């Protein structure tokens, strides 16, 4: 017969832990009744209580190594009892105390609880196995869970011992690396301090503790049994003394896999609604067939040799058996007919808990390992002797080679195997705890952490099936140091506080942020601009003077109207070409002036519409050349008038200059100079279409880049020079005695012309986009209209309305 020994801490104090014993009994019973596993071999077990005391643990461990009443190391008097393996209990520190002794004897020790991070089991504890996954996966799961829900401001609670210290030292840097801040790290005192000194502790330390944890919405707890027992006792006693009788701190509790939601019998009045919506990690488990039925037939007198059952029964049902030695008033008598399924889940569960499932797998792992050894040896013995004999004896150290490589499917359908570090090759489930007012609860699997899964599936969670605490109205809680910085704002660190605490500053002008909680704003692309809220970029509008907009239509109307009027004036002059008023002051120059004005009005249309590679060079050069012809005609007419009057004096030498040759020479020379300037401009740096994205914030100015600003102002400067010379000459000849003398009209027209183009420069430079183009079109139309009106309106008045004044007598009259 083979024996396995079990150490269970505080089995009597917490009734729920008794399920671990029942899981052990159930698994051994199943194996012994299964002819396919260890045929002709029965498994047995001893249970020792450590009372979470190191001295008691060492004493009980030594008892495992001897079979006599006295502890005599390395001596066994009962050879029929063969201890194969030790299954360690819930407390990690106790398990490690045992491992230090059992490792000397190479006795396999299988722990079924989550332990604090230890060094490599392979190097330091070669005889130590854990039927639980590596705890590093749980830390990764906690970080993933917080990141998934965007919880960046959390508190950490752990016990005031080495395990709690390791938990904080391991988890805190991981949170920091992933942008999660800890509002505090709080340690719970030992349970003895709470029970022995609860009056002073509750009023001072407990108040301070619960005030501290009230700062956050999410609390990460290293949920070792002693930590949770202390925490619940503090809450229970604090609420009792405070008069509220209920623990009303509402938050999301994130528990590690050590938690099993168990209450001591004295805490049965504790309102478990405080943990409604809690999330916890748990070793992956499944429903074990037959276990619930096994529990339903339990009776206090049923299992012989189980001294824990009666203790459990009395504490769980708050009653005493009639033959009990305890004398307590006001307690009911236990009938033995009480039903386990009537107990609240915090005291006892009918389904196998995570720890019980791990213990169940531990027993089966040992059984399958023994079975392999027996089958292998029996096979060799049958081959050697021709028949099978009694099962051979197996020493504990011989189990290691098989246990390390064991892999089997349990009755729940899960694969059980150890990795290279002697830990279960599995993951963690994420459990959502839904509590009810009648002290019952439901465990809902809402996610999984599995290091063996493919990339992208290591962490999964179903947020839609999670039930949050009723205080949150079924809305995912926010766990932030302060509210989010929404798009349009950037985070600015608060001095003296963790990096998760920040102020929200609006983005500077011209910059945006399009995500929450960005550290810096950024500029849009050149062809985009920020919207009003500065949370997205909008494409800029193309800015150019179109034909269809009101301003463009107005200019088209004016240009065509002035062109039509110019054409009518030209027609009138051609029709009355033989009259004295037309023939005076050089009829050909008059025609040339009218034609150039006609073209000037039309060339303004080149400035409308989207600039192109053809229109850009043509705009300024056509305007410059045509206007130079118009001003040259005026200059020639003015000089002709002056020379004509000078030539009338007796003996004047100016007669040889009077005539069409001089006028044509002046016109041609002025035209050629301007044409040369324009040709040089086009050959060196011609105007081209350009997209100006910086001048106006919300618009892209589609414009004609002048290419060479110097050449542009040379063209304008030459026109100004011709206009000023014409103005000076006309001004000198304004009082010459002739009814048809144009000098005074030319003087006024040149005054208007120069005024318009002098005001053009500051107006042109102070505007942008299409309004800059509008200023130039307006200057072209206004100056052309000024020339047309000032010079030709008096003549048209005479020709059309006062034809009697259009005679040679008036032409030769002297005043």
Description of the molecule:
The chain has 815 residues and is an alpha/beta fold. It has four domains: 2-134 and 287-305 and 349-425, Rossmann fold (3-Layer(aba) Sandwich), CATH 3.40.50; 135-283 and 429-472, Rossmann fold (3-Layer(aba) Sandwich), CATH 3.40.50; 489-539, no CATH class; 550-812, Rhodopsin 7-helix transmembrane proteins (Rhopdopsin 7-helix transmembrane proteins, Up-down Bundle). Helix 16 packs antiparallel against helix 17 (615-647) and helix 17 packs antiparallel against helix 18 (660-684).
SSE order and pairing:
Elements lengths: L1 E6 L10 H16 L9 E6 L5 H11 L17 E7 L3 H11 L6 E3 L9 H4 L3 E3 L4 H14 L4 E7 L2 H16 L3 E8 L2 H6 L1 H16 L4 E4 L3 H18 L9 E4 L22 E6 L7 H6 L11 H10 L1 E2 L11 E2 L20 H32 L14 H4 L3 E3 L5 E3 L10 E8 L5 E9 L9 E3 L27 E5 L8 E5 L4 E2 L9 E2 L4 E3 L6 E3 L1 E3 L6 H26 L4 H4 L3 H17 L11 H33 L12 H25 L3 E5 L6 E7 L3 H24 L10 H24 L3 H32 L6 H5 L3
Parallel strand pairs: 1-2, 1-3, 3-4, 4-5, 6-7, 6-8, 8-9, 9-10, 11-12, 24-26
Antiparallel strand pairs: 10-15, 13-14, 15-16, 16-17, 18-19, 20-21, 22-23, 25-26
Helix pairs in contact: 1-12, 2-3, 8-9, 14-16, 14-21, 16-17, 16-21, 17-18, 17-19, 18-19, 19-20, 20-21
**Strand composition percent:** 5-15%
**Describe the biggest sheet?**
8 strands, mixed
Count of alpha and pi helical runs: 22
Poorly predicted segments: 1-12, 117-122
CA radius of gyration: 52 Å
Number of strands: 26
CATH class of the largest domain: Mainly Alpha
State the end-to-end CA separation.
Answer: 154 Å
How many structurally independent domains? 4
Please give the order of strands in the largest beta sheet: 7-6-8-9-10-15-16-17
């Amino acid at each position: 017969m083979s024996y396995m020994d079990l150490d269970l801490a505080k089995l009597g104090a917490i009734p729920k832990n008794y399920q671990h014993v029942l899981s052990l009994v159930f698994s051994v019973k199943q194996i012994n009744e299964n002819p396919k596993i260890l045929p002709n071999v029965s498994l047995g077990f001893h249970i020792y209580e450590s009372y979470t005391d190191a001295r008691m643990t060492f004493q009980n461990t030594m008892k495992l190594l001897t079979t006599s009443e006295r502890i005599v190391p390395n001596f066994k008097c009962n050879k029929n009892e063969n201890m194969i393996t030790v299954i360690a209990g819930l407390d990690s520190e106790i398990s490690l105390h045992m491992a230090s002794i059992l490792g000397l004897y190479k006795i396999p020790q299988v722990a079924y609880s989550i332990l604090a991070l230890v060094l490599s089991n392979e190097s330091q504890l070669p005889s130590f196995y854990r039927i639980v996954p590596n705890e590093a996966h749980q830390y990764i799961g906690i970080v993933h869970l917080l990141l998934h829900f965007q919880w960046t401001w959390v508190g950490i609670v752990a016990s005031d011992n080495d395990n709690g210290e390791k938990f904080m030292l391991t988890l805190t840097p991981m949170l920091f690396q992933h942008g999660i801040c800890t509002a505090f790290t709080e340690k719970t005192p030992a349970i003895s301090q709470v029970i022995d000194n609860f009056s002073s502790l509750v009023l001072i330390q407990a108040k301070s503790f619960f005030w501290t944890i009230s700062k956050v919405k999410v609390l990460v707890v290293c949920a070792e049994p002693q930590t949770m027992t202390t925490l619940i006792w503090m809450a229970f006693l604090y609420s009792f003394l405070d008069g509220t009788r209920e623990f009303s701190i509402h938050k999301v509790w994130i528990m590690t896999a050590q938690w099993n939601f168990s209450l001591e019998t004295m805490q049965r009045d504790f309102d478990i609604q405080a943990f409604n919506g809690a999330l916890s990690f748990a070793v992956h488990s499944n429903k074990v067939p037959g276990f619930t039925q096994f529990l339903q037939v339990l009776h206090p007198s049923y299992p012989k040799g189980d001294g824990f059952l009666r203790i459990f029964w009395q504490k769980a049902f708050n009653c005493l058996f009639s033959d009990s030695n305890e004398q307590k008033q006001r307690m009911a008598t236990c009938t033995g007919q009480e039903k386990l399924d009537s107990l609240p889940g915090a005291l006892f569960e009918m389904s196998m808990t995570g720890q019980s499932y791990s213990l169940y797998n531990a027993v089966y792992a040992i059984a399958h390992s023994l079975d392999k050894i027996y089958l292998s040896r029996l096979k060799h013995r049958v081959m050697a002797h021709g028949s099978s004999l009694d099962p051979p004896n197996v020493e504990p150290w011989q189990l290691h080679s098989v246990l390390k490589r064991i892999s089997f499917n349990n009755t729940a359908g899960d694969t059980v195997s150890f990795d290279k570090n002697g830990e279960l090759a599995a993951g963690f489930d994420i459990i959502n705890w839904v509590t009810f007012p009648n002290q019952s609860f439901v465990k809902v699997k809402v996610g999984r952490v599995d290091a063996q899964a493919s990339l992208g599936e290591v962490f999964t969670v179903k947020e839609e099936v999670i039930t949050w605490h009723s205080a949150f109205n079924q809305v995912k809680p926010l766990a932030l140091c302060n509210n989010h910085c929404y798009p349009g704002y950037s985070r600015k660190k608060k001095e003296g506080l963790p990096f998760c605490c920040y102020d929200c500053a609006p983005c500077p002008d011209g910059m945006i942020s399009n995500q929450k909680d960005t550290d810096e704003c950024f500029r849009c692309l050149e062809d985009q601009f920020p919207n009003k809220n500065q949370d997205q970029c909008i494409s800029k509008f193309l800015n150019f003077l179109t034909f269809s907009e009101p301003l463009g239509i107005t200019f088209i109307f004016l240009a065509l109207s002035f062109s039509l009027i110019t054409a009518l004036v030209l027609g009138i002059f051609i029709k009355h070409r033989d009259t004295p008023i037309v023939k005076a002051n050089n009829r050909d120059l008059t025609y040339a002036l009218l034609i150039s004005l006609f073209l000037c009005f039309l060339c303004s249309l080149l400035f409308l519409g989207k600039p192109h590679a053809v229109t850009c060079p043509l705009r300024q050069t056509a305007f410059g050349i045509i206007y130079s012809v118009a001003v040259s005609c005026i200059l020639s007419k003015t000089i002709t008038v002056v020379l004509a009057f000078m030539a009338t004096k007796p003996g004047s030498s100016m007669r040889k200059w009077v005539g069409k040759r001089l006028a044509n020479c002046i016109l041609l020379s002025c035209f050629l100079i301007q044409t040369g300037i324009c040709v040089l401009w086009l050959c060196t740096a011609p105007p081209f279409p350009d997209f100006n994205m910086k001048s106006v914030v919300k618009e892209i100015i589609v414009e004609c880049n002048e290419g060479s600003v110097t050449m542009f102002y040379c063209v304008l400067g030459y026109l100004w020079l011709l206009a000023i010379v014409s103005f000076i000459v006309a001004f000198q000849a304004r009082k010459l005695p002739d009814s048809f003398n144009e000098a005074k009209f030319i003087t006024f027209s040149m005054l208007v012309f120069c005024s318009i183009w002098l005001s053009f420069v500051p107006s042109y430079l102070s505007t942008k986009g299409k309004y800059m183009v509008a200023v130039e079109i307006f200057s072209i139309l206004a100056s052309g209209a000024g020339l047309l009106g000032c010079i030709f309106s008096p003549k048209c008045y005479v020709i059309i309305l006062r034809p009697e004044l259009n005679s040679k007598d008036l032409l030769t009259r002297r005043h």
